[in-house]
Write a structure and sequence with these properties.
This protein is mainly β and 255 residues long. It has helices at residues 9-19, 190-195, and strands spanning 73-81, 92-96, 122-126, 132-138, 143-145, 148-150, 153-160, 163-172, 197-198, 200-202, 211-214, 217-218. The chain has one domain (9-223): Protocatechuate 3,4-Dioxygenase, subunit A (Sandwich), CATH 2.60.130. The strands form three sheets. Strands 1, 4, 10, 11 and 12 form a five-stranded mixed beta sheet that branches. The longest helix has 11 residues, at 9-19. The radius of gyration is 17 Å and the shape is globular.
């Protein structure tokens, strides 16, 4: 994939600083008793049925296009952690969501008002040595598709060594539509609810109203490394739609 080097280095420094904000949880056993395993939530019907031309971690610009997607620019960062807070390295993190017109890139996930052809709609990242991942995307918006209304959310999945380990979603903390969201309301335990609610805050130093959000993914048990240390895929739609209870190293590439 092409490295996106036209953004100033200071922006990369900002994102790296945001990612390092969760460094306390990368030491095995440190604050482990405070970690809540990320609950599994349904994959839903709109995982891409055809991948976009570009699948990197910048969802605002497709390949070398000039026109960016419309929406509130959000820098999403986080870490993938084992049950004791240890980093999960070399795991594929995928995200997908609706665009600013409330449409997915899935062929059956389009609203009648059209879609934003400049929004990638899907991205992936390979976690680094500290389990970190990062994306540039837009703040999610509420939508209604096929008779189902949803609060704003972003789908996220983690795979490693050829296996889908977790499929979930996260929502905007404090959004009024959360109380009416059927998927969110499947979570009965307040700790599970808190684990999938994310603050979207103004990005420090931004002159363009950009936002930052952090979502750490914690497994209830620590995934095991493959014996040969090789990655064998794991990206793709999960069997059964990702339902049920839950148990790259790449630098940020922003245009």
């Amino acid at each position: 994939m092409q490295l996106l080097n036209s953004r100033p280095l200071s922006r990369r420094g900002i994102i790296q600083g945001l990612t390092l904000g969760t460094a306390a949880f990368t030491t095995p056993g440190l604050f482990a008793e405070q970690l809540t395993a990320t609950p599994r939530l349904t994959e839903g019907p709109y995982y891409p049925d055809k991948m976009p031309l570009d699948t990197d971690n910048d969802l605002l610009v497709i390949n070398d296009a000039i026109t960016p997607a419309v929406g509130e620019i959000t820098y999403l960062t986080g870490r993938v952690l084992g049950a004791g807070g240890e980093p999960v390295r070399n795991a594929f993190v995928e995200i997908w969501q609706v665009d600013g017109r409330a449409s997915y890139i899935h062929s059956r996930g389009r609203n009648p008002n059209g879609y934003d052809s400049n929004f990638q709609g899907y991205g992936r990242f390979l976690t680094g040595g500290k389990g970190e991942y990062s994306f540039r995307t837009i703040k999610p918006i509420p939508y209604s598709l096929q008779g189902m209304a949803r609060a704003p959310h972003i789908h996220i999945a983690v795979s490693k060594n050829g296996h889908r380990l977790l499929t979930t979603q996260f929502l905007i903390k404090g959004h009024e539509a959360n109380a009416r969201d059927n998927v969110f309301n499947q979570l009965r335990d307040p700790r599970d609810r808190d684990a999938v609610l994310v603050d979207f805050q103004p990005l420090p130093g931004s002159k363009f109203g950009e936002l930052s959000a952090n979502f750490d993914i914690v497994f209830s048990r620590t995934p095991q490394e493959a014996d040969d240390g090789k990655l064998t895929g794991g990206i793709g739609k999960s069997e059964g739609g990702g339902r049920g209870p839950g148990f790259g190293h790449q630098p940020p590439r922003w245009r």
